Amino acid sequence: MPAYESKKALADEIMRTYLLLDQEFDGIPIDKEEYRTAEVDRTPREMIAYQLGWLNLLLGWERDEKAGKEVITPSPAYKWNELGLLYKHFYDTYAGLPLNELRPLLKRRVLEICEWIEVLEEEDLFVAGRRKWTVTSANWPMSKWIHINSVAPFKSFRTKIRKWKRIVGL
């Protein structure tokens, strides 16, 4: 993971990688949005649902901790060894919504993440243990949690959607 020099650098990288990913969904016909290939593990709609799910979890963890609630990660209904079920929940949550409705939802969540970063103290982002929900056996700072649930998958999904488009012939 890159070491971000500031919260602005993190927010800028989130926005940069999001915009690159988002443009990859341009021109995908509605009848191909759920097309599954053996070579790519998610459909275009599943890729966006996955991102919406994780960004919603991040924001929810923060909101719940601020409200004094106990935060259970990844969620009260799923344990870390049940991520496949959690992903299915993400896909089911957004099932039936076409890309032209999912993409604006993702954009709003990305903007919300960037706005949240803007109001955080630098120490909250870059010092481990500043939020209870970040304290795990790995004890990552919040910036790493945000990175692995935004920038990292934005990059990997960009590669996947490009591969998917080549296979599909787009």
Uncertain spans: none
| N-to-C order of helices and strands | HHHHHHH
- β-strand percent reads under 5%
Shape designation: globular
Radius of gyration: 16 Å
Topology of this structure?
Layout: H1 7-23, H2 44-66, H3 83-93, H4 99-119, H5 122-126, H6 142-148, H7 151-168
Helix pairs in contact: 1-4, 1-7, 2-3, 2-4
Describe this structure in words.
The chain has 170 residues and is mainly alpha-helical. The chain has helices at 7-23, 44-66, 83-93, 99-119, 122-126, 142-148, 151-168. The chain has seven helices and no strands. The longest helix is centred in the N-terminal third of the chain and has 23 residues, at 44-66. It is globular, with a radius of gyration of 16 Å.
Briefly characterize the structure.
The chain has 170 residues and is an all-alpha fold. It has helices at 7-23, 44-66, 83-93, 99-119, 122-126, 142-148, 151-168. Helices cover 60% and strands 0% of the residues.
Overview features:
single chain; 170 residues; mainly alpha; globular
